[in-house]
Specification:
565 residues, alpha/beta, six-stranded mixed sheet, elongated, disordered C terminus, NAD, C-N_Hydrolase
């Protein structure tokens, strides 16, 4: 009979921050030891952060990362944790080719005790590992107090064969996998089903430790878990927070003991939280403490402002109302109410005098005159960003980006775009959810997210509402000419978003879209708009990826593409 406790250290790392990542690893190793764990497992590429991309090709960085792993092993022993098996990720080197390797190391007794290199190197979607890394070629089993642990790294369990198939024949007791699996809506079920298949393949429990936190345009949702050999869920960490989960394994038990299973969040809460965590970590890792954005009174800027307040506090949000001669009183009132609800700074900078000054020289008409208004606003937003040292936020949604319904160097300016992967109809859904959550006690900054592991409820909003109802219910308009509505230039969003989801996220061509039941005129209009707007999207700020196919990372339509089938 053998028993061990395995700790699942779900932490937020930062690419390139060897010192900070090592210190956090040391902190969580101490926490695991205090919980009487014999093994503590961290996410993929723990010490280097993930994904490190071409930083892995820098030889001096690889050496520094290896030195940091050795330092950590020595420090653990010096702190009295030499008996603990600490499983961390880092970057190694294939000395035959001098290429980097995505490596797992086991630290024990003051040394790097064992190692394992990732076999399958993904080069689809957001991943570019096949170009960067050299693949591993052997499996690794480490015995801890009579328990045989087999190891894998992320993609190794997604592909059939390879190390998992090899481990199935080596009599392991537990399959331990460290992961850097980015978030996308609905992916948690896919991960779980995969782990169940692998558990049955190796006839052993699977420990799945995932990274948490935002890194550039990726969000890692955590949600680490353990399944038994028969696929039963034994333990699950909460999503979007740092956590230390525990799994007790007994070689004699037919079924392992169930531990703490965190509840799964509501689907709207999940997506909203992913967007906020992406923004919050982008700010923190790029050393911004505040944001600025234009507040028009519309739903997009209102949702972005609410997300910003949840990410950094309303007092660190600068909302700028920039009314023109076409701005309605209702929109101006909605913008002011939104700023008051979240406790943001609120400045009014009318653009009509600037617009008149430009027109006295340029004499623009039509779309050029409309876009001039947006570009004046962009200049003001960037002036606030520069003068106050805050991050400028772009407020465009995925529907607008898809169709080119934004002004380059105008409303497209900014350093980060929190809702760029949300279709317009999804924006409305999340706005309604945020108001409902506020009414049920989730104040400003009350999301269960990295930095709020204690679950503080946040600052209450006036009248328990964040986003003005009128911003949600009124017809969307850019208000760049009298009586303008988005539907003047685009199909109604309820229809548009269905076509966009099929064309972009499900890769349906023209024939597929017609077979889906969409009318020919709508299909041709939407496809033409999407294809012609690629040059704009290439210049749009990055933002959190939350769908299966996001602009920028995933969708690379050639600018001059004529392929339409």
């Amino acid at each position: 009979m053998a028993q061990i406790r395995i700790a699942l250290a779900q932490i937020d790392t930062c690419v390139g921050d060897l010192e900070g990542n090592a210190e956090k690893t040391l902190e969580y190793a101490h926490r695991a030891a205090r919980q009487h764990a014999q093994v503590v497992v961290f996410p993929e590429m723990t010490l280097t952060g993930y994904p490190i991309e071409d930083l892995a090709l820098r030889r001096t960085f690889r050496k520094a990362a290896w030195d940091k792993a050795n330092w950590l092993a020595t420090e653990l022993e010096a702190d009295g944790l030499g008996d603990l098996y600490v499983v961390v990720g880092t970057v190694g080197t294939d000395h035959a080719s001098d290429k980097p390797r995505n490596r797992l190391v086991v630290l024990h007794d003051g040394v790097v005790w064992a190692g394992y290199d990732k076999h399958f190197l993904p080069n689809y979607g957001v991943f570019d590992e096949f170009r960067i890394f050299s693949p591993g070629d052997h499996s690794t089993v480490v015995e801890v107090d009579g328990v045989r642990l087999g190891f894998a790294i992320c993609e190794d369990i997604w592909q059939d064969g390879g190390p998992v198939a090899e481990l199935a024949g080596r009599g392991i007791d537990v399959l331990v996998t460290m992961n850097g699996s980015p978030y996308e809506e609905g992916k948690t079920h896919t991960r779980f089903d995969l782990a169940v298949r692998r558990a049955r393949e190796v006839s052993a429990p699977v420990v799945y430790v995932n990274q948490v936190g935002g890194q550039d345009d990726l969000v890692f949702d955590g949600g680490s878990f353990t399944v038994d050999a028969d696929g039963t869920l034994l333990q699950r960490s909460p999503m979007f927070v740092e956590d230390l989960g525990l799994f007790d394994f007994d070689t004699d038990a037919k079924r392992q003991t169930t531990g703490v299973i965190a509840p799964a969040p509501d689907k709207d809460e999940e997506v909203y939280t992913a967007c906020v965590l992406g923004l919050k970590d982008y700010m923190r890792k790029n050393h911004f403490s505040g944001v600025c954005l234009g507040l028009s009174g519309g739903i997009d800027s209102a949702l972005v402002a609410a997300m910003a307040a949840d990410a950094c506090g309303g007092a660190n949000v600068w909302g700028i109302s920039m009314p023109s001669m076409y701005s309605s009183d209702g929109s101006k009132d909605d913008a002011a109410d939104l700023a008051a609800n979240i406790g943001a700074h609120y400045d009014i900078q009318p653009i009509e005098p600037l617009f008149v000054a430009y027109q006295n020289q340029l004499h623009l008409e039509g779309v050029a005159a409309e876009n001039l208004q947006a570009r004046i606003r962009g200049v003001i937003v960037m002036a606030y960003s520069n003068s106050k040292g805050v991050l400028a936020l772009a407020t465009g949604n995925k529907s607008e980006l898809a169709c080119g319904y934004s002004t380059i160097y105008g409303d497209a300016v900014g350093g980060y775009a929190p809702i760029k992967d949300l279709l317009k109809t999804r924006v409305w859904e999340l706005a309604r959810w945020r108001n409902e959550a506020c009414a049920h006690g989730m104040g400003i900054g009350g999301l269960h997210i990295v930095g709020n592991e204690a679950g503080e409820h946040g600052k209450p909003a006036p009248n328990d509402i964040i986003i003005p109802v009128n911003s949600i219910t009124k017809a969307p308009s850019a208000e760049l000419r009298p009586g303008q509505k988005d539907s003047d230039s685009l199909p109604e969003y309820a229809l548009l978003d269905q076509v966009l989801a099929a064309y972009i996220e499900h890769a349906h061509g023209r024939a597929d879209l017609l077979a889906d039941g969409f009318d020919e005129k709508t299909v041709d209009t939407v496809m033409r708009l999407v294809d012609r707007a690629e040059w704009k999207r290439r210049q749009y700020p990055l933002g959190p990826k939350v769908t299966a196919l996001a602009f920028g990372r995933d969708r690379r339509l050639p600018v001059t593409s004529a392929f339409r089938e």
